[in-house]
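User: I'm curious whether this sequence folds into something compact or stays loose and floppy. Could you predict its structure so I can see for myself?
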Amino acid sequence: MIRICIIYDKLRFEEKKIYSKIKEKGLDATLVDGKSITFDTESSKRDPVFGDIILQRVISYTRGLHLTYCLEQMGLPIVNSYNVSEICGNKLITSMILKKNDVPTPKTTFAFSTESARECMKNLGYPLVVKPIIGSWGRGVYQIKDQSMAEMLLDTRQDNDNSYSRIYYLQELIDRPSRDIRCIVIGDEIAASVYRYSSENEWRTNVAVGGRTEEAPLTSELQEIVLKASNAIGGGILGVDLMEDKARGYLVHEVNNTVEFRGASAVCKSDIAGAMTDYLLKMSTK
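Assistant: Here's the prediction. I'll summarize afterward.
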């Protein structure tokens, strides 16, 4: 019997749903808290707790990334891979990879000091969007409307001891409807496609800040761009987020590693957790 291990650091709807689906399909499922795992230089894949394949669902980017690296070095198959996890967790790297592979993206500028960020903001023009290069759920994402707001943000970043605060990710504000699109990609298939609408008095569309979801039609154009983005990142189980620019069409602005699908599962008929299980089963036999 194939044994699937799910590593997490917080049990959410998604991990519980995947675990239940694995058991429903008659497979062996194990839930392991990533915070409890230890490794040493002698660790090997003979440890039975990790099973035949691992699904890495750790929320913490840094913890998940290093766990993934250790598990791969032990020779264990893991979804998603270390390389994919690293790319998705860092918006700067994601944007560079997407652009290199001709995936349409918003115009984005990177700066590495307060002075250069100030100059880049002036060149981009206001309004613009500032994002942390590492982070999720819309945290630390701000719409900067003028120079005064820019100076307040720069002052705040300057006082922050986090080394990533010295790296500025500056993006044009897209002329779009009050929604974006999330597509959940599993291998070479798109399991779900949803609109995420922003809540009242909120421009961000993240469900974590009150956004709502609605099933979105999966057009051939959308499918082509989403799969191109997924392949550029390295494939696996991914969430590809896009905006609909009124002049340029679909623009990919983010790719998620441990993608959440509670909102999508509430409005889509597709069995997302079941498709994930089938993919893990397929990958375990390679």
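Summary: The chain has three domains: 3-87, 108-172, 175-281. The radius of gyration is 20 Å.
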